[in-house]
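To whoever is on call:

I kicked off a structure prediction for a single chain this morning and the downstream step that reads the tokens threw a length-mismatch warning. I double-checked the sequence; it's 225 residues and nothing unusual in it as far as I can see. Pasting both halves so you can look.
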Amino acid sequence: MRILVVEDEKEIADGIESVLVRENYLVDTVYDGLSGLEYTLSGLYDLVILDIMLPKLNGLDILKNVREEGMDVPIILVTAKSMVEDKVKGLDYGADDYITKPFDVEELLARIRARTRASKGSRQNIISVGDIELDKSQQKLECGDGGVKLGNKEFQLMEYLINNAGHILTKDMLASKIWGPDDESEYNNVEVYISFLRKKLKFVKSKAQIVTTKGVGYSLEADGI
């Protein structure tokens, strides 16, 4: 399980990271809001521990951006004791939980366990092809023990590719299906999002490939189809 820690107080951040590593979590730590947003939107994390008071971009703005992108990665906010209003805003914006400084590490670990249990999707929401599975309840691409969260457009595109695995889909078909037939502003993003998905297939170590047929379109090729 991979966790992102976004905390500008380096001593606190490094302390959290050390505790999580001892518990056998994979951990990345960043110390400002812009980096926190970028890392969270990468979709590589199963859970985010997010401080509210951050330089460059505060935690509430990060949370709002992430939810507007359609990502449901569990997020635990770290708040100051007196910040009642921010706790309420955080929950309204889509935070899954919050913990107040100073906190006990056992409490933090318990909250992490609770959030990850709650986020596990039902098997009926999973579609698969070859060695990959797409969990529709979590917008998560999985292969073996590896998994990665997908952004909203990435998820829609991967779902469409899986449902039409082995068939060539033209760029026009993909653009129309994902962005709508009347929206030309995102047309060139098809190539960009195909690139994103290829990287995520590589990240989860899948044998499936998105193949380009020059001048025609793209197809998802996997064993067993």
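Update from on-call: the warning came from a stale cache, not from the record. Cleared it. Sanity check on the structure: The longest helix spans residues 189-203.
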